[in-house]
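Hi L.,

You mentioned the student needs an example of a multi-chain input paired with its predicted structure. This one should do, with 424 residues in total across all chains.
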Amino acid sequence: MVRVDQTLDARNLICPMPVIRTQERVAMLDTGQILEVHCTDPGAIVDIPAWCRVHGHKVLIAETHGDESIVRLEVCD
Amino acid sequence: MKTQRKVVALISGGLDSMLAARIMLGQNLHVEGLNIFTGFCVQGHTHAIRNEHRKKQKRNDALWVAEKIGIKLHIIDAIEAYKDVVLNPKHGYGANLNPCLDCKGFMVGKARDWMEQNGFDFIVTGEVLGQRPKSQKRSTFPVVARESGAFDRLLRPLSAQLLPPTLPERAGWVDREKLFKFSGRSRRGQIELANDFGITEFSQPAGGCCFLTDTAYSRKLQDFWDHRPDRDYELDDIMLLKVGRHLRLTDSWKLIIARDSGETHYLNGYRSKFAHFAITSHSGPVTLVDGDIPDADVEMAARVVARFGSTRDAESVDVCFTRSDGSQHTLTVLPMLPSEISEPWYV
Ligand code: SF4
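Structure written out for the whole complex:
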């Protein structure tokens, strides 16, 4: 089973709010912890992975199912 | 060993701030970016709501810039704090409801707070002397430096050689000789510099970095303020002003009518918060009602709704009206004739 330490509900938030909420949550997590973000803004699936790349966090999955997207990331140093 | 100084770059997503940050990277400084989200910012996604813009890649331009030049980017939620800037600008508005000078002071002020909290040494912006008639001129540059509290820790690398040396230059943290003297509205110098850096793709939002410079948007915002007991607003209010046709038939309510399926998809997300109309006998746009619509006005509104979409020539159209408490009823109406739609209804 996939380990997820925390889930963030960013559904119905308009970009860039899902990125801002992700950023705030990651700041509270430790290295190695896994955060799963649920969002509905179609831009979030592009922006959250981009934010992860510039900060060196690992994107484990970024996928869209219907109107909802899920980004799972691992907090890195 | 010389300590590596740290600089925070305000990144809007446009070319100038991208260049300012890139220049700093070339001077062996540690650079991180800061993007301030006010709620009025022009984002690729906002444009992408409409079908005609859907092919455009949906991306946050500031994040894209950060990734291109290889810096971290922090996005600051400044929606609440920005209200005071937009509601009570000390220096007034520009051609539309854009409080540019107050806004720049606010943004640099946010960067100053961030700089102090994170142990950074100074701030850079992409401001160019004379580029904007009111907010980027010789007399306003010191105002921004002073009102933000950044004082001479604020460096504008693109015009630095035309300005008095700042602390980072005097202290030798940056080499002033390698900064620039761009001025005016021409973008030629910046585009050449971008080429020198190998930057071939960049975003150039027409008219500015936010919706407040847009005439149609400002008109809708003014109308919104004119019909509320006070001018306070929530993020949803100002986002909805970016979407749909707005028709105000009376002082107490207006209609927000989706113009295509992209906008319908977007407005559908607001159905639980607003009374709304949906055409059930034909295909047609979703329409939100902003304000309190009395029962006596519902039929008139339904006839306007039926006028837009594929139903305009139909003899009768079924329109389902949902109140904000969720109760529903369906009306059968004749679409309003073009001659009955009053031009002043369009906000
Ligand atoms: S255009 Fe908008 S974001 Fe840019 S300085 Fe003016 S008010 Fe601020």
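You could point out the following to them. The interface with chain A takes residues 35, 37, 43-45, 48, 57-60, 63-64, 66-67, 71-77, 235, 239, 269 of chain B (CB under 8 Å). The radius of gyration of chain B is 24 Å.

Best wishes,
N.
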